[in-house]
Sequence to fold (192 residues):
Amino acid sequence: MKLCGRQRIVIKSMWRSVNLKEKDLSDLKFEPLGKHDRAAFTCENRDLTDYIKKQASQDVSRNAAAVYVATLDGKNILGYYTLSQYSIQLDEIPEQVAKKKFAKYKTVSATLLGRLARDISVKGSEAGELLLLDALSRALQLSKQVASSAVVVDAKDKKSAAFYMKYGFIELPNTERRLFIPMATVEQLFPK
Fold:
């Protein structure tokens, strides 16, 4: 995915605070999973490491998830995330948010951010934040073609939940570590 115009400004403003450490990520590209070196990817969570190595290409071929990777060279995967269609019950959403942000249907269309992981080689470089920004930008663009009112994520643990909440995700009260962010809020992150 190539960012343009104001999206690039949002990303560039993030770069001011990015600690690049040993990896310069200024040329990071986000693209659909293809003939990338999945075997070399390793993150702190074994399930997320195993997913990209063993399951991701099957999910893509079965249309179960769209998998996007972050790469500098078109081969090595520095991170990845998955998106798929989803829905949540309106009564699961906190009432004060539901009244303001969503149509009054029993279910609300959403995009599921199923997995998000970055390679240990870029730990501390804010690659996770860049992956999240790209996922939200892509979900917003896709919501113009196939309606989606929110992005939903099931955080793996408390640390992951805190990461998403730092970027505006709200906990759904009935399911532990299930969070969402209204698409209207995402749209504010990427002004036209």
Summary: The chain has a mean pLDDT of 87. DSSP finds six helices and seven strands in the chain. The longest helix spans residues 127-143. The CA atoms of residues 38 and 52 lie 6 Å apart.
